[in-house]
């Protein structure tokens, strides 16, 4: 286990997570604003889980936290972090199974990761990016104190269409450790 919150365990992915990862990534509502296509085959999930398990949360590059609901011992989502080479900046992203959305789990998980990055690791800035149409992800970032820093017009080609991306940033000096109410 890497981190725990009141309701969640944030840990490394393990091989047994692949079927659940494939299931929630195959949900068109979860995949809508993400770079993968639904359905997300089990073989692809198995390869992803292997790559996630080999990565390190302490070295530059990508790390994916598996988010487990402690009470059910069930994988409910993931939080992505890309650490920059300077180990002072990172990018964050998240995806959660539809059944576990709108219940505060994503806010709780992302808050835990931000606490680690800012408080434990001394990071200076964390950024987030989302499709302009993804109002729920934008709202989550804003609840956590991220500030909108820009709009990249027709920046990303996802599922055959060019999408506008919102850019968000959060400085260590702005992180309170609590989501805005």
UniProtKB/TrEMBL annotation:
Protein name from the UniProt record: RimJ/RimL family protein N-acetyltransferase
Signal sequence segment: none
Pfam families: Acetyltransf_3 (PF13302)
Top-level lineage group: Bacteria
GO molecular function: acyltransferase activity, transferring groups other than amino-acyl groups
Gene3D superfamilies: 3.40.630.30
InterPro entries: Acyl_CoA_acyltransferase, GNAT_dom, N-acetyltransferase
PANTHER family documented for this protein: GNAT FAMILY, PUTATIVE (AFU_ORTHOLOGUE AFUA_3G00765)-RELATED-RELATED, N-ACETYLTRANSFERASE DOMAIN-CONTAINING PROTEIN
Organism: Actinoplanes campanulatus
UniProt keyword annotation of ATP-binding present: no
Residue stretches making up the N-acetyltransferase domain: 8-173
Keywords, in A-Z order: Transferase
Keyword Transferase: yes
């Amino acid at each position: 286990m890497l981190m725990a919150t009141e309701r969640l365990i944030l840990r490394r992915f393990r091989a047994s997570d692949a079927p659940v990862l494939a299931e929630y990534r195959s949900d068109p509502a979860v995949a809508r604003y993400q770079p993968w296509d639904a359905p997300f085959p089990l073989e692809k999930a198995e390869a992803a889980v292997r790559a996630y398990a080999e990565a390190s949360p302490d070295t530059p590059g990508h790390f994916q936290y598996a988010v487990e609901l402690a009470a059910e011992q069930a994988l409910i989502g993931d939080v992505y972090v890309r650490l920059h080479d300077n180990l002072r900046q990172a990018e964050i992203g998240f995806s959660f199974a539809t059944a576990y959305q709108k219940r505060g789990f994503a806010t709780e998980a992302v808050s835990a990761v931000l606490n680690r990055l800012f408080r434990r690791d001394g990071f200076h800035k964390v950024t987030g990016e989302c499709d302009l149409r993804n109002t729920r992800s934008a709202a989550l970032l804003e609840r956590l104190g991220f500030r909108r820093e820009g709009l990249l017009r027709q920046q990303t080609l996802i599922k055959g269409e060019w999408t506008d991306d919102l850019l968000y940033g959060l400085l260590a000096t702005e992180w309170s450790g609590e989501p805005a109410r």
